[in-house]
Design a protein that fits this description.
heterodimer, A: 359 residues, alpha+beta, six-stranded mixed beta sheet, five-stranded antiparallel beta sheet, B: 409 residues, six-stranded antiparallel beta sheet, three-stranded antiparallel beta sheet, 42% helix, disordered C terminus
């Protein structure tokens, strides 16, 4: 087990001006499951491949533990890429499937047996070691495949979108299993996904990247409640945070209604963007008028999609409310602020997270 | 409401009639070619189409699109892979429930799954040939910036090539296309290939199908050696002094032997050393030569074999010290050797194996007969004997369909 440290790690692809990963600084703790998340082109996979040794560094360094691995070839980095597409060989037993790669690496027989038995115990596969894969359930087969990576006892596991070839239902189930397994193994793991829900449910911490630049690395709770900038605010959370850009006309106003910020740090006369989660707003008797477009009733909660007229532009907002709630397309409702409001400056950086009232 | 969207590279109207509103595993027996059941990540079925077969693979939309794009790239760059027919997307069943996409590829004629090669003991040094074929394939992909990510015996198909084998990419789900591969990507891809090859051979061994003399670990490891040697020959700059110039010729010969054409050779003389680096155009040196001379379509080794047969025949019919002009030599060989051989093959046996491969086997057969007899045996006698003793006992390899992979991968 080991820590992983990116120090200003940079990667340029040939014939591009902007780095795919720009001066990434990241410290991953021993035993941590860190998720790299971001949209396509954010550099998340490149960052993982730099750690794996698949992409060379054009600047900076990467350490695994105390060892600078920046120029070390992949097989000597003591890492294991975990695939979901590991082949299982039908004529080999579960133990042979898990252990043959160790034999290939000339690991002595006794040590091989020990590693396979340990991995099998962690994966609840001990009773099946002498069986053939066809006698296992789908989930057990998946675990044998994982076992092939575990027996290598790497210092770091790397997973690049490992669930992307599964259907939605299996994906949810497998991600829980993977997170539990990582917890039991306690091996430092770097996990890449484009799916922020997957990132938030699996990561001890989540590093959000955009255009090769790290935006924020924090716990899922902090990313959700204290986004460092407008991008993270909009990327994390489903449904997404309501983000409204405000060009103040003497005062800051949402759809013509003045906003009174509790935190005096906010300059209501400067251009800013406010963000509030659907649960930080409510349908009330007063507030900003909006026209109902859809009502998403999920049983335990209801999301009301409305459009408000903000600075002459129809602007969509989502408000979370409790059932029962009834409204029809075209009904007019009033929206009040009922929770924290995030205020971002013209560059999108956070200015304050504060309470605010519409008046 | 039933719906689907079919995008194909060539018009294939017979595909429209297929039951797209059903999950692939529920397709009726009369639609598909039934194959022994195996376990696979995705459901795969074969259907007859336009006198051939199409392989259908059901997989999530984004993966189907990705694999379609990778296969298109492989095609555009002349890399060995299965033919691409198209993709059926936006599918839904009769209740309007969405269904995954289906990737449709063309069955590769005369291609053989590796398990079949082991069940027909007709290829000497099979382990070496398999490894060579995979090494050439992997090098070709890497030269064009393709990271395969799951190179295995199972994810490739093989065609006979005059005693050797040629490998084709079948499964590209994990493949990535880059402008250029880093050394890290190449070595990692190779590492995956070696481990997968080892697993595949161990699996055959456990099933009692591995030929004697093939040692799984050593054979798989030799893939790394073969790959590295070929990669170095194709890409390395070599510094030689004048006394070692012959080594440049040896390297070019090795590349030509493997079928790689060298276009420009960068020679740079300074400090009393010659800096040498070949520029590789593409693979297929001999097959292009054969095709331009005779019109015969063959793989690389077959072409080499046929070209030397043409030269040998030319020397044999040569009257006097002056060699025959090439055009005359080729025309007479076609008229007096190739065409009579092809005509002599009964209609029902034609096409069981590729023509060039069959001619190669006839040559082999004739050589053995002549050795046994202690004199040259006439061509028609050789062909007759080949038909009865060899060809009649061969399965039709044209559409020997790939059984579903026998593993999870």
């Amino acid at each position: 087990m080991a820590t992983v440290t990116y120090e200003e790690a940079t990667r340029f692809y040939p014939d591009t001006e902007r780095p795919a990963v720009a001066a990434l600084d990241l410290e991953i703790e021993d035993g941590e499951l860190l998720v790299l998340v971001g949209p396509s082109g954010s550099g998340k996979s490149t960052a993982l491949r730099m750690l794996a040794g698949l992409e060379p560094l054009d600047g900076g360094r990467i350490h695994i533990g105390d060892r600078d691995v920046s120029s070390v070839r992949p097989r000597d980095r003591d890492i294991a890429m975990v695939f979901q597409n590991y082949a299982l060989y039908p004529s080999l037993t579960v133990a042979e499937n898990m252990g043959f790669a160790l034999k290939q690496q000339k690991v002595p027989k006794e040590e091989r047996r020990k590693k396979v038995e340990e991995a099998a115990a962690i994966l609840d596969l001990t009773p099946y070691l002498d069986r053939k894969p066809k006698n296992l359930s789908g989930g057990q087969r998946q675990r044998v495949a994982m076992g092939r990576a575990i027996v290598r006892s790497p210092q770091v596991f790397l997973m690049d979108e490992p669930l992307s070839n599964l259907d939605a239902k299996l994906r949810v189930q497998t991600r829980t299993e993977l997170a539990e397994l990582q917890e039991r193994l306690g091996v430092t793991t770097v996990y890449v996904t484009h799916d922020q829900v997957e990132a938030m449910t699996m990561g001890h911490r989540v590093a959000v990247l955009k255009d090769g630049v790290l935006q924020q690395c924090d716990t899922p709770q902090n990313l959700y409640h204290h986004p460092a900038n407008e991008f993270v605010a909009g990327f994390i959370g489903s449904p997404a945070m309501n983000l409204v850009s405000i060009q103040p006309d003497g005062v800051a106003a949402l759809a013509g209604t003045e906003i009174d910020f509790d935190d005096s740090v906010v300059d209501p006369t400067a251009p800013l963007t406010i963000g509030f989660r659907p649960e930080s707003a409510r349908i009330g008797a007063t507030g900003v008028p909006g026209v109902v477009r859809t009502v998403e009733d999920l049983g335990s909660e209801v999301f009301v999609h409305v459009v408000v007229d903000h600075q002459g532009t129809p602007t969509p907002l989502v408000v979370k409310t409790s059932p029962p709630f009834e409204a029809h397309l075209g009904d007019v409702v009033h929206i009040e602020l009922a929770g924290p409001v995030h205020v971002f400056d013209g560059d999108g950086s956070i200015v304050a997270t504060t309470r605010a009232t519409l008046r | 409401m039933v719906a689907f969207r079919l995008k194909t590279t060539v018009p294939q109207t017979d595909l429209l009639a297929l039951p797209w509103a059903l999950p692939l595993e529920d397709w009726p027996e009369e639609t598909t070619v039934i194959l022994p059941a195996g376990t696979h990540r995705h459901v795969v079925r074969f259907v007859p189409t336009s006198g051939d077969f199409a392989a259908l693979k059901e997989l999530p939309d984004h993966l189907a699109v990705r694999e379609f794009e990778v296969l298109s790239f492989l095609h555009q760059n002349g890399l060995p892979t299965v033919g691409l027919i198209g993709i059926a997307s936006e599918r839904s069943d009769r209740f309007g429930e969405p269904l995954p996409s289906v990737l449709i590829t063309k069955h590769l004629r005369y291609s053989l799954p590796y398990s079949h090669l082991f069940s027909t003991p007709s290829i000497p040094s099979l382990g070496e040939h398999l490894v060579d074929a995979l090494a050439v394939l992997l090098v070709r992909l890497h030269l064009d910036g393709v990271f395969w990510g799951d190179c295995s015996l199972n994810n490739a198909l093989f065609r006979r090539d005059a005693g050797a084998l040629r490998a084709y990419v079948v499964d590209t789900e994990t493949a990535e296309i880059h402008p250029r591969l880093s050394d890290g990507q190449r070595t990692f891809d190779l590492e995956i290939a070696v481990e997968n090859a080892c697993g595949g051979l161990l699996d055959l061994e456990a099933a009692g199908l591995l030929q004697e003399g093939i040692e799984p670990f050593a054979t798989a490891e030799s893939l790394e050696v073969r790959y590295q040697a070929l990669w170095d020959d194709l890409t390395q700059t070599q510094d030689v002094c004048e006394a070692q110039l012959a080594s440049i010729h040896q390297r070019l010969d090795r590349l030509n032997d493997l079928g790689f054409d060298t276009d420009e050779v960068e020679l740079n003389a300074r400090d009393g050393l010659v800096h040498f680096r070949p520029t590789i155009v593409e693979e297929g040196h001999h097959k292009r030569q054969l095709a331009s001379l005779t019109g015969i379509v063959a793989h690389e080794n077959q072409a080499r074999r046929l070209l030397s047969a043409i030269r040998a025949y030319g020397a044999w019919i040569q009257d006097g010290p002056t060699p025959l002009p090439e055009a005359v030599m080729v025309a007479r060989w076609l008229q007096e050797r190739w065409e009579p051989t092809m005509r002599q093959i009964p209609e029902d046996l034609r096409g069981r194996i590729e023509d060039a491969e069959m001619y190669h086997e006839v040559l082999q057969h004739g050589w053995t007969m002549s050795e046994d007899a202690g004199h040259d045996v006439a061509l028609d006698v050789v062909v007759d004997s080949y038909i009865e003793e060899v060809l009649r006992h061969r399965v039709d390899e044209r559409t020997l369909l790939r059984p579903p992979p026998t593993s999870d991968g």
